[in-house]
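Methods — Computational structure assignment.
A single polypeptide chain was analysed. Its primary sequence is given first, followed by the predicted tertiary structure written as structure tokens.
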Amino acid sequence: MLDQKDITDLRDMPRILWVVLVAAIGLFLFSVAMIVAMPWKLDQGMATLVGAVVGFGIIAWQAKIGFSNLIKSQANQSTLDREAREHQALLDVQTQERNDAAKSSFARIPEG
């Protein structure tokens, strides 16, 4: 289920997400204790709060992964663009040299 990369990502989570995760686990455990103490009665406000905290944590984690991928993609695209500009400049120089050579060969032909 969790591979080494996922575990590394969990270790690299920002501190605020750890706080959110611990708070969500704490609220979950509190809710479980309340259910055990008062069977068949779950406070609607507590359920909503736990759901909101867990949902926020998941959205924040996915946003972190998305922004990380976006940054990698932009870096890769800038590398590709730079290489394409260098290659285009090389092609332009070669074309110019061919055009200059063709013009000079036409200039040598005697008119007659």
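Note: The chain has one domain: 4-107.
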